[in-house]
Amino acid sequence: MDAAFGCSLGIPFGAFGTSGIPCRLAATGDYPPSLRSPWRAADESIPNAAKALLGHLHTPYIKIGLSDEDFFANPEHPARVFLDRAIAASAIWVDEIDLKSGIYPHLKDAVFNIVRLRRQSNEDFEKFTRELDEEVSALENRFQVMEKRSMENEQDKEQLLLAKEAAQRATANIFGGQAVPAYCKRFIDEVWVDYLTLLQLREEGDGESEAWKDACKLGQRILWISTSEEHGLGRAAQIETLAQQIRNQVGALLPHQERKIEEFIEALYTPAEAEEETEAIPPPPTEEAETPVSIDQQTLDLYNKLRTLPNDTWFEFNSGTDQSYRAKLSWYNPLTDHFLFVSPRGRKSMLMDITKLADQIKKGNVVYFTNVKGSFWNKAMRTIMSMLERNVEPSVTQAQ
Description:
Layout: H1 2-8, H2 37-41, H3 48-54, H4 58-67, H5 70-73, H6 78-93, H7 104-116, H8 122-175, E1 179-181, H9 182-202, H10 210-227, H11 233-253, H12 258-269, H13 271-274, E2 278-280, H14 297-307, E3 314-317, E4 325-333, E5 338-342, E6 348-353, H15 354-362, E7 366-369, H16 376-390
Helix pairs in contact: 6-8, 7-8, 8-9, 8-10, 9-10, 9-12, 10-11, 11-12, 14-15
């Protein structure tokens, strides 16, 4: 295709790195493989199976290029539009592990139907493009719901993890280092931490909300009453007020824990009958100064670039191996620097930390593609023109 392109522009075939071969030989496709690189490898986002399949279009497209002067001049030429759409669909919907799924079976039928035609007309390509678009749309509709569910599930898990960590920190700040009755320790472990976790979720992580401040004050009152040695009517009055607060605040969020809440309140009224032994609650962890981690500028730049990648960016893992597979960035959590990837079918593929992801990219085990839906023709022609300007063999070594 590159040779035909060069000939159509009046560029001698020798300008592509060889000599003495007439332009008419371009129609046979009988020229060195390196000269076909803009056609065969202009876009590394295409899986190898799709490249091999689309390679069957090589001869038909050369014939179109030599016979239809509008082919190179018109970016909306039906044959060009079809190939652009086919490559974009291949980058997303071809699963090399299971070629019977995704777009591959439909694309295979379309390619061989084109090859079998004695003459490929614009109407034929318009028909193939329309059918391909319909198939891609059906795949997108089928798996969008599943992807949304995968993303929401992972978001819920991440939010729950952060909320539980906040609840445990607040609990340690209130009760840490204190010796409390065993019944109080059970209440803290089985009810209180869950209450603060749920409150964090309801308050969307706001540690300065009035509800959160009220909860922390309630915890301090629970600690004081549980460890107080005061007896008599004064204690009973204080417990009555505290019990009402516990029912209103904790019980309202955890109605299924009513039995344990009432057992705790009853134990407050009769601490001697409940249990005599006390249990120490671990003190809050000391905040040790973190040893600064040295990150070189190249890695830091990669971190920042990954953090700004749009959702729907496609990644290839185990790149360059027989076990390579593709997954789409579905969600990035800026609070944890975690990246959620889903398969083309919308199922969760993995949740990866930015440190591991960047390390795999630097090692070449992972690559990502910033524009899988960009025009193949624009990329191929830029490659050809760059090759001509440099007068060197084309080489595509990095996915763009």
